[in-house]
């Protein structure tokens, strides 16, 4: 599929607002009401009832460095014992631990969505309903937070996804502000791009983001049913896909990740949510293949939300509607394993740490599960 491109002449800039750097304060910045009530109502994630759990379940380890170290060591040992030196996902039967509860406190979340890891091994988490970005150790211990509800630099309106580049830039899909924000790992604002619309360089509820080996940024332009690609200077734009059900078309796309192809080189995979499939394409927009179909059987998907890869190219998909993670083999995309059933309540985001641990965020329980 051919792409179209356009040069953006200027990038709007504004002055960073208070609270635009990561802070270790136990109390997050006060939220403003700058977003319109109509848009806020449309974008509010699922809210739990008064009976929602607000404490950790009995099988949950308290967040601590010792729990993280033990889990990482166990995962490393499992990988070392594997004949292929990869993690055997069929041996995952339940989460090693989880952390978080519903709320706006230091150790709480309100519908956590996208998450990623940095070079230090921490989890960077989009605390979507609290309009902030949080950093926790992989064991759950709180480290830093940044953001509040608003439209200024360093403020967010339902941040949906986060990606950490090789040079440690943090790119955040600021969904209801219809833009991406770029920050340092310390939370210092660098730039932002995007505005509401369907023209080149414009976005309609960006839901996910990743980068390729050349620093180009791939954005899931959810509301426009496409993937937008921009260069590392955020000035050249191209788009791939249109809304639809045919190959190379998307219906409410959400997740995106870079995958390697032995012949074609770096490509990308998109969680094509309402088409209940994952599509793989070249960065030039050429369709390669798709996998998954609507259902709950092994290998099938129901509203896949996020997609990532491990160090060996295996593809992990958040099977949102089925409350599980599906794992597919690198390049062949043969289903390998599933896990999380009975534990994951409306899973949203997934990432794999350098130790091979799998972290999953849950909208329903407001927790992060680590497998």
Describe the structure.
- The protein is mainly beta.
- The protein has one domain: Neuraminidase.
- It has helices at residues 37-43, 65-81; strands at residues 4-7, 97-99, 112-117, 123-127, 132-136, 142-146, 159-164, 169-174, 179-184, 189-193, 206-211, 217-221, 226-230, 236-240, 253-261, 265-272, 277-282, 287-291, 304-309, 315-319, 324-328, 335-339, 347-352, 358-362, 367-370.
- The strands form six sheets. It has a five-stranded antiparallel β-sheet with strand order 1-14-13-12-11, with no helix packed on it. A four-stranded antiparallel β-sheet has the order 2-25-24-23, with no helix packed on it. The chain has a four-stranded antiparallel β-sheet with strand order 3-4-5-6, with no helix packed on it.
- A hairpin with a 5-residue loop joins β19 and β20 (315-319).
- The longest helix is centred in the first third of the chain and has 17 residues, at 65-81.
- It is globular, with a radius of gyration of 19 Å.
- It starts with a strand and ends with a strand.
- Mean pLDDT is 85; it is low at 1-19 and 25-62.
Euclidean distance between termini CA atoms? 38 Å
Strand order of the largest sheet: 1-14-13-12-11
CATH superfamily: TolB, C-terminal domain
Described by the principal axes of the CA atoms, the overall outline is globular
How large a portion of the residues is in β-strands, by DSSP E? Answer: 35-45%
CATH topology: Neuraminidase
